[in-house]
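Exercise 7.
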Amino acid sequence: MTLQVLSYDRESAVAYARKWAYARNPKYYNFDRLGGDCTNFASQCIFAGAPQMNGTPVFGWYYCSLNDRTPAWTGVQYLYQFLVGNEGIGPFGEEVDLNKLKVGDVVQFGRMTNDFYHSPVVVGFRRGEILVATHSNDAYNRPLSSYTFEKIRGIHILGYRAPDGNM
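Solution. The predicted structure, written as tokens, is:
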């Protein structure tokens, strides 16, 4: 199968974040009571800008239902591993310094033990400050500096791959 590399639609990702930051899209399960909904929301935003899931069981990135999804769709570390390691279908990215982030990218907060636990989506910039949207503690245009964390990493979405003729 030949894959084509397509551009990530950052504006669509941000528009999705704006629409659903303080609500829940009924197409997706709300994980607030199962450890948090932040990475589920981040995946939804990414999917709005890179509409190609990776159906590989266990190691892919897809959501069909609560019981039919991959760990990367809802798990902080798994999303990171998928995005920075994906060489197949779906979105792919790289870890970057925060000053290289663009709207539609993801930041992840962690502890000194390298346990990362939160995945806000970059939705804007104001006077040099990164603004994010997230679920769990719902927010839109929240300054990154208003959070407390021990470690942080940025994931820059480079694009997504789809089978030739798909889009």
